[in-house]
Amino acid sequence: MASKISVVAFVFLCSSVSVLGGNFNQDFDVTWGDGRAKILNNGQLLTLSLDKTSGSGFQSKKQYLFGKIDMQIKLVPGNSAGTVTAYYLSSQGSGHDEIDFEFLGNLSGDPYILHSNIFTQGKGNREQQFHLWFDPTKDFHTYSVLWNPRSIIFSVDGTPIREFKNLESKGLPFPKSQPMWIYSSLWNADDWATRGGLVKTDWSQAPFTASYRNFSSQACIWSSGSSSCSSGTSNTSWMAQSLDIAGQEKIKWVQKNYMIYNYCTDTKRFSQGFPPECSINA
Q1: Is residue 102 annotated as a catalytic residue, yes or no?
Q2: Which in 2, 27, 46, 204 has the greatest CB count within 10 A?
Q3: Phi, psi for residue 11 in degrees, rounded to 5
Q4: Which of 102, 168, 249, 277 is flagged as catalytic?
């Protein structure tokens, strides 16, 4: 059996690498926004902005099939109601796979909502939402995805908040065959983002700006139909990582104290029965 180490310890080790993180000019392309996305400081900083005319976004130059991905983000400060800052991995097509972080804006003084979701073969509806235990607009914080054949683990500053296990042995799909790009965007979603759309975007506060730095990846790069990990030359110890007891306790702590929505407990939405992974993971 592959050895297990604490995800907290693993993320800490990765954070020491991400301080020397990648260069946005080398790793990403600005894909939309007509100048509202900017790469600054010789590629060490990227900013996305949103005004009443348009938001903005960027995309990785490479595709990945499994990886440990870190990004430090400082979210839109002040009254950000109606805005969404999305940071996610996704394949393309109608049957796509996707791993989502979305940060839902707020009125000044209210907590941000971290919205997470996972799509497999085009099917999502696996939302979990959390409040954060810090103000994500005051400084940069590290948002991480560990995606390997065993599971998908979301972490914030080294603390795991959610795990989605590979349950193919139970007949459930798991994202493992479609390479994904990394995306991020800042956009207006005031029809649903803040209090279900009750609070609209205050355009007098525009432009809204989110900032990014210290992108770091340990990942299998997909190119021309093959994976860089196939050669066996990469350090792929993260491919066997999973949560140990300490990591599982961390998730329980976060979900007890900061989770505000879990699709696996939404009896109104799933009146005919919860998705099967809810009972298997219970």
Answers
A1: yes
A2: 46
A3: -65, -35
A4: 102
Q: How confident is the model at residue 14 (pLDDT cuts 50, 70, 90)?
A: very low
Long-range (24+ apart) CB contacts under 8 A made by 240-243 are 240/2, 240/3, 240/148, 240/150, 241/4, 241/5, 241/7, 241/10, 241/68, 241/146, 241/148, 241/150, 242/2, 242/4, 242/150, 242/151, 243/4, 243/6, 243/7, 243/151, 243/153, 243/160, 243/163
For the beta carbon of residue 230, count every other beta carbon within 10 angstroms: 10
- 3-class secondary structure, 265: helix
Q: What are the pLDDT digits (tens) for 107-116?
A: 988 999 999 9
- 130 vs 77: CA distance, rounded Å: 18
Please give the model's pTM, rounded to 2 decimal places.
Answer: 0.90
How buried is residue 206: exposed, middle or buried, by Cβ count under 10 Å (0-12/13-18/19+)?
middle
